[in-house]
Amino acid sequence: xxxxxxxxxxxxxxxxxxxxxxxxxxxxxxxxxxxxxxxxxxxxxxxxxxxxxxxxxxxxxxxxxxxxxxxxxxxxxxxxxxxxxxxxxxxxxxxxxxxxxxxxxxxxxxxxxxxxxxxxxxxxxxxxxxxxxxxxxxxxxxxxxxxxxxxxxxxxxxxxxxxxxxxxxxxxxxxxxxxxxxxxxxxxxxxxxxxxxxxxxxxxxxxxxxxxxxxxxxxxxxxxxxxxxxxxxxxxxxxxxxxxxxxxxxxxxxxxxxxxxxxxxxxxxxxxxxxxxxxxxxxxxxxxxxxxxxxxxxxxxxxxxxxxxxxxxxxxxxxxxxxxxxxxxxxxxxxxxxxxxxxxxxxxxxxxxxxxxxxxxxxxxxxxxxxxxxxxxxxxxxxxxxxxxxxxxxxxxxxxxxxxxxxxxxxxxxxxxxxxxxxxxxxxxxxxxxxxxxxxxxxxxxxxxxxxxxxxxxxxxxx
Length: 463
Ligand SMILES: Cc1cc2nc3c(=O)[nH]c(=O)nc-3n(C[C@H](O)[C@H](O)[C@H](O)COP(=O)(O)OP(=O)(O)OC[C@H]3O[C@@H](n4cnc5c(N)ncnc54)[C@H](O)[C@@H]3O)c2cc1C
What we know:
Layout: E1 7-11, H1 15-26, E2 30-34, E3 46-47, E4 55-56, H2 68-75, E5 80-82, E6 87-91, E7 98-100, H3 101-108, H4 110-119, H5 130-136, H6 141-152, H7 164-173, E8 182-184, H8 189-196, E9 204-205, E10 210-215, H9 232-240, E11 247-251, E12 256-259, E13 261-264, H10 268-272, E14 277-279, H11 284-292, E15 298-305, E16 314-318, E17 325-330, E18 340-349, H12 352-356, H13 359-376, H14 382-385, E19 386-393, H15 414-418, E20 426-428, H16 441-462
Helix pairs in contact: 1-16
The structure holds flavin-adenine dinucleotide.
Flavin-adenine dinucleotide binds at residues 11-17, 34-37, 42-44, 58-61, 63, 209-210, 265-267, 270, 275-276, 298-300, 394, 399-400, 403-404, 430-431, 439-442, 444.
């Protein structure tokens, strides 16, 4: 056995790829990270210009207390504010008035449907959508808009795209308080990963989309045709020891890279649209799992106002408009400890994206929500006080093309199949590969650590 350091190729410099790289590097592996875009972070992305303080354009809240990522954030100096100390407001279904969550729950018995789906384990039908379930249960259609806002959009899509069973499994599988989320007050996820993974950032090849992955196992050493003559001596040297690199990949420009293992962390959309070719082809079960998963369409909108006109203790605001799910941005100012801001963020996903992608229709939706705010908050000057709007559509971000992998119809055990290594050489990490905590930052982080650990263990067994 050669004592040469083993090398791992990692595709994607989002949190899962960086976590894997960092853990492997710490354990004596050589790592190379290939990122198609010109920056790291993937669906973690910040904006420092719009608000005068840092905004999260992508992943924002930490959805699991005491998870490894929660502890990483603390270690990197994050001040985490639990959002259960803040209020969640709803526009009453009957009147254009705000209600706090307790009032809403008791008036509309919302918890009833949540319990039905999450606790009723008899619902085994993965092909039934939440929309279909509600209609069978006789839920009045005026309620759909609510469920679309906080069951649909939050899960990356519309009610007609989300499976009752997958949603129930997801909610019950998270094993954490459904409502306990954490806001970063003094830093951003981008800064956390920049700091935590600083030692591996120099190993990123930026603007390097990978288009072909050859994983040959012990079967055959693939000869680089172009470099054959130049590198003949080196290649022979490598082949002799039979301890050769087993993965050969190519980027869009045709450059070739080799390694002992490979971890693919790209969003599921990139495997579905076949921007990466696998040789040999992936096992049929794996291909089927990839086909069954679904990355939602979606993004985030930010509104900056001259003044605040929503309640001081508000975290989320659910309004009866197409832009329905909004929340207040908190930020700790270094000098004043001021935590309230004049910025509202909104999450959009699912069917509303048809309109958001058309600039004219998007403008109409913006007008609609501003008018709604004026009436609900009884503050007629809302439009005059609007300073700026920022819209980031992840569906249009090249090499990402979506928000997160939703609990979609007929997903079955796809996540489980997806995260199984192929031939102990080819690994699949990234949020979609987490069987209980997909769609999240902490989940994506754990998948990177998981596959790094698998490779570390494999090497230990070989020694
Ligand atoms: C709008 C929005 C809001 C969100 N809100 C939250 C939230 O509040 N809380 C939460 O926990 N999570 C949230 N998430 C989800 C969270 O951000 C993601 O689950 C997580 O960041 C995904 O990390 P990842 O490493 O799996 O994938 P990514 O971050 O997508 O990283 C994959 C990387 O692969 C690169 N890539 C793609 N194709 C190739 C190729 N061919 N070659 C090389 N590189 C390639 C991509 O450019 C990308 O950088 C949100 C996401 C979005 C979009």
